[in-house]
Amino acid sequence: MSTTYTLDTSTSRANPTPTPLKRLTVPAIKRRKFEGKTDEPLVMLTAYTARQAQLLDMHCDLLLVGDSLGQVIYGLPSTLAVTLDMMCAHGAAVVRGSFHALVVIDMPFGSYEASPEQAFTSASRILAETGAAAVKLEGGEAMADTIRFLTARGIPVMAHVGLTPQAVNALGGYAARGKSQEEHAKIVADGTAVADAGAFAVVIEGVLEPIAVALTQALDIPTIGIGASAKCDGQVLVTEDMLGMFDRTPRFVKRFDDLAGRISSAVETYAAEVRTRRFPSAEQTYAPKD
């Protein structure tokens, strides 16, 4: 038996359905900040799997496939060992699991710093293999030419200034940045440089609050804070941190749940029922009459 399908030719080839999916776009995110203000802050969380994306998507404006997956998923000591293969695999899963939020994918350490051309090769691969809308890279003034090169070639870039985890060895740790006047001025200059280079938004991480406020007021593009200020144009957290999946919680994280505790309790109950042969019961097994 054969089935005939009728294609609605008024839709795009990428979405051959009568109602194409309405995913947020880079221009839509930029427009959320108008005349220096964002009336409704942008909501951003990390996502690494299709199922996680499904659960977060309806509540978020942006989903970040962060290189934090190195620590969260793979148990690595830092983000430095994360590869392009990892980012592409997890990025594609998150795109498949979402339909509303703009998906942004971190460019891993070593995939973009050597030259703008290297960055384009890496970024174009990420977007082609995942279907994501944008990439994120760390660094301020030093990366301005790279951001300019990418955006001129159709690759939207989210920047990242302040505490940049990929530079943890150079920074000497994960302490808040901007405590000296020199460092304060450098972070402000970095934020200004990436905005001027064409970034559509900038993550400000782990800085003294006045720096985040000053950048938010000075830049025309949205600022997304993490350990920064409620006055930023949006906020991002590692999802597993805000859900309470780890014992250690950074100061800038609010635990909105104790998911680790609830998982442990559920597994304890499961183990007890297996060991006492209460699971599986008749409800979970197949009788001959079935």
From TrEMBL:
Annotated residues for binding of 3-methyl-2-oxobutanoate: 67-68, 106, 136
Cofactor comment text: Binds 1 Mg(2+) ion per subunit.
Keyword terms: Cytoplasm, Magnesium, Metal-binding, Methyltransferase, Pantothenate biosynthesis, Transferase
Cofactor list: Mg(2+)
4Fe-4S found in the keyword field: no
Primary location group: cytoplasm
Pathway membership, UniProt: Cofactor biosynthesis; (R)-pantothenate biosynthesis; (R)-pantoate from 3-methyl-2-oxobutanoate: step 1/2
A GO molecular function held by the record: magnesium ion binding
Active site as annotated: 205 (proton acceptor)
The keyword Methyltransferase appears for this protein: yes
Catalytic activity: (6R)-5,10-methylene-5,6,7,8-tetrahydrofolate + 3-methyl-2-oxobutanoate + H2O = 2-dehydropantoate + (6S)-5,6,7,8-tetrahydrofolate
Localization terms from the record: Cytoplasm
Its EC number(s): 2.1.2.11
Biological process according to GO: methylation; pantothenate biosynthetic process
Binding site for Mg(2+): 67, 106, 138
Alphabetized SUPFAM superfamilies for the sequence: Phosphoenolpyruvate/pyruvate domain (SSF51621)
GO cellular component, one term: cytoplasm
Assembly and binders: Homodecamer; pentamer of dimers.
HAMAP family, alphabetized: PanB
Family (UniProt): Belongs to the PanB family.
Protein task: Catalyzes the reversible reaction in which hydroxymethyl group from 5,10-methylenetetrahydrofolate is transferred onto alpha-ketoisovalerate to form ketopantoate.
Protein name in the entry: 3-methyl-2-oxobutanoate hydroxymethyltransferase
Naturally occurring in which organism (per UniProt): Sphingomonas oligophenolica
Organismal lineage: Bacteria, Pseudomonadati, Pseudomonadota, Alphaproteobacteria, Sphingomonadales
